[in-house]
Amino acid sequence: GNIVDDDGCRRNCRFSAIADADGYTWDPYSPYQYLLNGTIDAWDGFGILRVNNVPYRGGTESVDWDARVYTAQEVELAGFQVQRRFYVAHPGDDADLRNFGRFFVRLRNPSELPRSVNLHFYGNLGSDTDTELVSSSDGDQTLNVDDDWAVSDDADGVGDPSISLIHQGQGAPSRTSEAVLNRDVVTLRWNPVSVPARGQITLIIFVAQNPNRAAAAAEARAVSLLPEAALRGLSPADRASLINFSLP
User: Fold this and answer.
1) What percent of the chain has pLDDT over 90?
2) pTM strictly above 0.90
3) Is residue 188 helix, strand or coil?
4) C-alpha distances in angstroms, 193 versus 107, 175, 242?
C-alpha cells in the first residue's frame, strides 16, 4: 500500500499499486485517477473523467488496501462536487468474481435547481494497434451503446491479460449515449444526465484482468448482474443514486 513517486512525473503525481489474489496489479494514478499500467501494460491510462468537458484532477485522500479502497479528494468541477474512488475485489470463493476493479464517481449538485451534466469516461487499453474486441454482451465484436460489457485482448491473445469492461446494466436509469473502441482507446459517454437539486448521482464502472478470453467473458457476465460482491463498500445513498446500473 505504499505510495511511490513515479520517476516520469513531478512529485505531485503519484501512483499506488496493489496485487490482487491472483497477482494482477492495480495502480490508480494521482491526480487523474486512471489506471496507469495494470499487469504487463494492460492499460496505458484508462479511466480519465471529464465533467462537462472539464478534466477531473484530484489528489490522494487515502489509501486503505486492507479494505482495498483508494479514495481521491472531492473537488469542485464544472459547478459540481466530484469524488472518485477505486476498489479492488476481495478474494472470494467464486472464480468469476475475484479479478475486478471498480471505478466510482459521485457528483453532488449544490444548486437549488436540477442540473444537466455530460459525463465522458475514457482511456487507453494498452495494446496499441493490436487491441481487438473479442466479445461483447450483444454477441458481436463491436462496442456500441447497446453493450453492457465487452472483452478486449491483444490480437495474438498472449502477453497482456484479457480485459473485461463492464460499464452498465439492463434497466439502468441512464445508458450510454456513446460507446466506441477506436484502435486501443475506449470512449464512454453519458449525456445528458440530470442531477437533482441538492442531490447526487453515482457512476460505477468495472474492469477486470484475467488469464484468457473465456475467463474475462465469464467475469464480465457475472459482474454485469451486479451481485452483492460488486457493490461492497457502497453506501445506501450511493446505491440509490446509481445511474448506469439498476439494483437487483
Assistant:
1) 72
2) yes
3) strand
4) 11, 10, 12
